[in-house]
């Protein structure tokens, strides 16, 4: 175990991180805790029990040896379709330590999606939680070249029993391929972002430690799941980097399940997404959970409306720190912080990263929207098997095109204006769907909104809203007119939605991002009532 392959100088801001030869990221995240006397401390808490740092290190070693014995070789890809549980940790870190590349997947995908990724990744092994077998088995059966190693999680745990508890980390390098994450699919087919050994160190120190202040005494609970880049940091790498404790929720996060988890395990840092915060606020109208253990709340995945920020603070006394990250950048690179909050904005650039906003004419002036580019020490190397998209996204001089439209105000705060391909041009003027959505969601009867551009009778693009109402509210022509007037009262005349559809739910990825492209394609038929005129 070479702990000297990594040095972190925290006396500087941002912290200076230096990597030595042979660096394997499993060493500082797993092995280091034994050397620092943390073996008896609890690393993971869940309804299934507790796992100490000492137990985690041993099981990671056993899992790495078991994977090798099962026939997964160094350099091979291991697809993980695994729920949030301790075994996720064993598989992920055991693979990395053994020189295998773990590829965690969204656990809510369907068989066709799994088949596509299995084929695209050319993986050697697929491991899955038994609850997901109904989708995984058909995917494997229909794959053109089925992987050689396919088994449920309990098959790996059984193999671990006879495996050696000792495993030396395979020498690698800071810039060597370490793990893959497939994009959430908010704009179409998933793409495999290839991340390096350095990337989790950078996000855990520069954002987790330096911005959120995650320390050894913290307990971290992420409603966002581990397969998601946001959840991977929140629920695994941030607490492991700090020597803190991670709380896992295996079930789907709901207001009730998240409140129960907070009351039972007393987390100090809570990570949610805007959709969940909105649902929790509705639940708080009748529930009174004990949230006193929480010192900070975090949001990402979708822009957090200022109205949700305001109501959450009024109801709970807690501030939500909104930020923006991406699968390609691994975690948040622009964020609010406890001593610097701008409601409705994504915040300022995280120290250690750079950001720029560009238009066709070049650098965007202050308060003018453009495409957001980011540069930093955690961006993916490339997309697997997709050179065209790699060239369009991973730009010269290590800049990453996020695909988001942003503006930077005169105070340095970054304001989200939607995906670049979601921006609308109404009457020749660029219009952000986020601005319309934020206004609609401030109405007391509205829970969630997605706005897209749809052609009117003349083929001109006009805003169109899909609205999920709060419990007890009913969609009608009268309510649609009321919502349009609500928008007209605060927005420029061209920005109000010309038509409103009341729907039961919005199409989303498992990470909570609204899939507006599905609404544009018409794959989500409006439910309940529609109202308004174009």
How are the elements arranged and paired?
Blueprint: E1 6-9, E2 16-19, H1 26-35, E3 42-46, E4 49-52, H2 53-70, E5 77-81, H3 86-97, E6 101-104, H4 111-121, E7 125-128, H5 133-142, E8 149-152, H6 153-161, E9 177-182, E10 192-196, H7 199-209, E11 219-222, H8 229-242, E12 245-247, H9 255-265, E13 269-272, H10 274-283, E14 296-299, H11 306-316, E15 320-325, E16 332-335, E17 348-349, E18 354-359, E19 362-363, E20 370-375, E21 382-383, H12 387-393, E22 400-408, E23 414-419, E24 424-426, E25 429-431, H13 433-441, E26 446-455, E27 461-469, H14 477-488, E28 499-502, H15 516-521, E29 530-531
Parallel strand pairs: 3-12, 5-6, 5-7, 7-8, 11-12, 11-13, 13-14, 14-15, 27-28
Antiparallel strand pairs: 1-2, 3-4, 9-10, 10-21, 15-16, 16-17, 18-19, 18-20, 20-22, 22-23, 24-25, 26-27, 28-29
Helix pairs in contact: 1-2, 2-3, 2-6, 4-5, 7-8, 10-11
